[in-house]
Amino acid sequence: MTLTDRDRAVQAAIAQGLVSPGQPVAGFLDIPGIRRSAAELRSAFEEFTAPGAPVLHAFAVKAASLVPVLRLLAQEGLGCEVASPGELALARAAGVPARHTVLDSPAKTLAELREALALGIAVNVDNHEELARIDRMMASAPSTAPIGLRINPQLGGGAIGAMSTATDTSKFGVPLRDAGARDWIVRAFLDRPWLTRLHGHVGSQGMPLERMAEGVRALYELAEEVNEKAGRAQITTLDIGGGLPVNFSSDAVSPTYRDYAAVLRSAVPGLFSGRYGLVTEFGRSLLAKHGTVLARVEYAKWAGGRPIALTHAGAQVATRTVFAPESWPLRVAAYDAAGRPKTGAPVPQDIAGPCCFAGDLVAENRPLPLLESGDHAALLDTGAYYFSTHFAYNSLPRPGVYGYATAPDGSVRFATVRTPQTLEEITAESGGAQANELRRLGLG
How far apart are CA 370 and CA 348, in angstroms? Predict the structure, then answer.
């Protein structure tokens, strides 16, 4: 059997005790794979973009809110797209400069806006009221920070409703097709020389590339209209968002960044001409294929004639998969106690997590070599979101996350990205230091 780098990493992680009876679940990131994806993104846009045109690829921090990962991507030439004070703090801790940072959020506070404008971070305004806030801030303390307006082209949703951002009633951006909206947007730009960007984000898992490109075309055409009426190149930058879908059914990377760039060139010929600087906000597509959650099988049992492998990876790490398995299915690979790929006839079985509710299943009736106590189940394609959206049900700890690289001789080296959460840390964040505070109310 030919071993993949992932197979070698699993075996090495178990041999080195990164996954063990005492630490029964951990996450792993293929660092050369992440670097490769970043290079492919840069290359795809460089191929189509006019020489000298500015392009910023801002990684969507929500996809992997891990400081070492953000620093790694910054070293690969990427910036950060942030959507909260916490994400901005992580980007700054990773050393990402303000000029490579973009703030998007539908609910920015006054404090967030003030901080961003003071730091020189690009801000994409979400709505009428937020623009009025910016007006007051610019009048009292003018800023040179790039400021844009987010629009919703209202093109419809993709295959996953909850992920679709361009429906008629989406909470994001100014709805372009609502009555009077287009005229209001144009006037907003004509009245504010400091408003120089347009932002749109249509992409998501389950969204076809052609519809994503349709959203970018709406953005481009609106920019052209504003600049024509302004009589100058007022809008200088288009932020086209991210959301490239990921193939979760095999190891193949499809679609690729080049596929998307080619569709964009066909649908929006002027996009890459150099008339506008470009910003992208990819997240899932950069990391998903390069992550693995590895969990020890604690028990193997049967119920109703079906085998069940009880593992330590459930809703706390695979929240979307557990609660919406049709939208977020995951491949599972079976390994033995030493981390070797299991062989044998596939047996339909459930792969269950540790949470105390019946639906805590990461795979149901899935044909795999029969898992036994002490074996390991690997959840594949989990490099994005599965390490940054921990669900603290049952006060289960956040698992450790480790980056790895495989040497030419097949040996594997690990680096700690995030240490496993301790019971003391769980207690502290659950109010441990305030255990007696409620007595102060004097109610008994």
Answer: 8
